[in-house]
């Protein structure tokens, strides 16, 4: 396994500021690590990429931008609800170089607050992905999604994925993926995440969400479920990935939730290192 940690991000220009904050937090929480950032996109301009190159240079990361060609998606159902970008993480095996065997996908609305090395070196036990289901206070959401999608496993969040790219190249057929999407379009509320669960959920190794995909909305739920063990000290010591799920975001005005000040701290560090 490569000693360098490979990170995958897929986004458009609207989430570039959040990507920069995420990378700042990743650097601060992973001292001494060699990190390669793989970016799949189709609309970023040379100016966008130049700024991101400068950001990665300041952090000591290497940046590898890849423009997703149209040929792979010529038969894909593409609408406003199903943009081309939604397929990128599931088709990462086809889009990334063959010599890349493993990658950690991260949504941009994330802070990395502890080392990613344990996730990077995790034994996938023959699975294609590792992901976490957001447990929350009860299992109601998982149960609802199991009934909605006809699955019998937890409803995995696609915002943090450890991916075996070789397995993805063997088992994910783009033509079959597009045909399934077309057939089940009315059932897909969260399209890429639903596809992950419906098609590949049995190939997912479950992660502890409190460590690897902590839902920043649900501090009280984690605290109650743990009998008071999962307090703020526990989060700062054990949680690696803090995920700002949902519509309320800490970079928007009026965000007053618990981890908002921490996000603003990393926003400030990001701005100081590379001013506009």
User: On the 0-100 scale, what is the average pLDDT?
Assistant: 91
Oligomer: single chain
* Low-pLDDT sequence parts: 143-149
Broad shape: globular
Largest sheet: 7 strands, mixed
Strand order, main sheet: write it out: 3-2-1-4-7-6-8
Helix count? 12
The helix content, as a percent range, equals: 25-40%
The run of helices and strands is EHEHEHEEHEHEHHHEHEHHEH
N-to-C span: 38 Å
Q: Give the tally of β-strands.
A: 10
From the helix content, strand content and strand pairing, which structural class follows?
alpha/beta
Radius of gyration: 18 Å
Strand content range: 15-25%
Describe the structure.
There is one protein chain. With 276 residues, the chain is an alpha/beta fold. The chain is 38% helix and 18% strand. The protein is built from 12 helices and 10 strands. It has a 7-stranded mixed beta sheet, sandwiched between helices. The chain has a 3-stranded mixed beta sheet with strand order 5-10-9. Strand 2, helix 2 and strand 3 form a beta-alpha-beta unit. Helix 1 (16-29) runs parallel beside helix 2 and helix 1 packs across helix 12 (260-273). The protein is globular, with a radius of gyration of 18 Å. The chain starts with a strand and ends with a helix. The model is unreliable at 143-149 (pLDDT under 50).
């Amino acid at each position: 396994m490569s000693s360098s940690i490979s990170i995958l991000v897929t986004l458009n220009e609207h989430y570039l500021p959040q990507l920069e904050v995420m990378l700042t937090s990743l650097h601060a929480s992973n001292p001494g690590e060699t990190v390669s950032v793989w970016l799949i996109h189709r609309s970023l301009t040379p100016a966008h990429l130049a700024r991101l190159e400068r950001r990665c240079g300041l952090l000591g990361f290497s940046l590898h931008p890849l423009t997703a060609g149209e040929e792979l998606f010529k038969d894909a159902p593409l609408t406003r609800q199903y943009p081309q970008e939604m397929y990128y993480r599931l088709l990462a095996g086809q889009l990334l170089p063959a010599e890349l065997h493993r990658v950690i996908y991260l949504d941009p609305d994330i802070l990395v607050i502890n080392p990613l090395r344990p996730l990077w070196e995790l034994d996938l036990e023959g699975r294609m992905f590792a992901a976490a289901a957001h447990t929350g206070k009860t299992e109601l959401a998982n149960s609802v999604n199991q009934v909605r999608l006809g699955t019998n496993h937890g409803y995995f969040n696609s915002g943090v994925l450890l991916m075996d790219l070789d397995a993805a190249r063997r088992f994910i057929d783009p033509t079959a993926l597009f045909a399934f999407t077309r057939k089940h379009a009315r059932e897909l509320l969260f399209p890429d995440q639903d596809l992950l669960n419906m098609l590949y959920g049995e190939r997912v190794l479950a992660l502890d969400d409190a460590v690897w995909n902590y839902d920043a909305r649900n501090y009280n739920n984690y605290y109650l479920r743990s009998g008071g063990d999962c307090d703020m000290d526990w989060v700062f010591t054990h949680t690696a990935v803090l995920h700002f799920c949902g519509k309320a975001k800490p970079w928007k005005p009026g965000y007053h939730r618990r981890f908002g000040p921490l996000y603003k701290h990393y926003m400030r560090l990001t701005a100081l290192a590379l001013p506009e």
